[in-house]
Amino acid sequence: MNTANMTADVIIIGGAVMGSSAAFWLTKMSPGLDVLVVERDPSFARAGTALSLASIRQQFTTAVNVEISRFGIEFIRNFADRLGQPAGVGALGLRENGYLFLTGDPAAARTMAEAATMQQQHGAATEILTPDVIRDRWPWIDTADLAAGSFGPRDEGWFDNMGLMSGFRMAAMAQAPVLSPIPR
Question: What distance lies between CA 174 and its chain's CA centroid?
Fold first, then answer.
């Protein structure tokens, strides 16, 4: 399809998860908005989405990032319902294995503890762990030089990133049928 002469209210360059998400939210919040998504690789094989770890965590040092991630985890858990329409993706296979950050620096351990307090105030379940607790829980980790660890036992893990992208893409196209020059 030749996109050279196509016009739209909004043109999004890149149709992987970020472009598809932007198209979804724009068409949801402004019904009738003409959104065009242009993607150079319709297979998405080399898109950042396909190459990413596809993970979510709550362990950030700014409250706004924790809040964004809190929204994100709820959205991922209830993906099909949050899309508001059938999009061919039921669940995203969330695996809450958690994230473990380690430090050997006592000053960094104090910063980690301060960040964990803020994260907890915003709903995260972050735990600060001593080297002994880390060794007991993960015996293969050499804890000799560790000062502390930060672990998120829930709301952190991995999910189906391509399912996320596909669901956003299909839902956006359902909201604005002439959305994308990408073959369906």
Answer: 22
- Residue 103's DSSP bridge partners are 148
Q: Which of 140, 136, 145, 116 is nearest to 128 (CA)?
A: 116
Residue 176 burial class via C-beta count within 10 angstroms: exposed 0-12, middle 13-18, buried 19 and up:
buried
* Cα–Cα distance measured from residue 43 to residue 137, given in angstroms and rounded to the nearest whole number: 41
Q: What is the mean pLDDT of each run of 10 residues along the chain (184 residues)?
A: 69 90 93 88 85 92 97 94 78 93 98 98 98 97 98 96 91 72 46
- Rounded Cα–Cα distance for residues 80 and 164 (Å): 10
Task: Give start and end residues of each alpha helix (H) in the chain.
Answer: 17-29, 48-51, 63-77, 79-83, 106-121, 131-137, 161-175
Distance CA 65, CA 58 (A): 8
- Cα(24)–Cα(48) distance, integer angstroms: 18
Q: Is 15 helix (H, G, I), strand (E, B) or coil?
A: coil
Tell me the chain's radius of gyration from C-alpha atoms: 20
Contact 128, 101 (CB under 8 A): no
- Please state the φ and ψ torsions of residue 117, each to the nearest 5 degrees: -60, -45
Residue ranges and CATH numbers for the domains of the chain are 1-53+160-184 (3.50.50.60), 55-159 (3.30.9.10)
Distance CA(44)–CA(163), nearest Å, equals 12
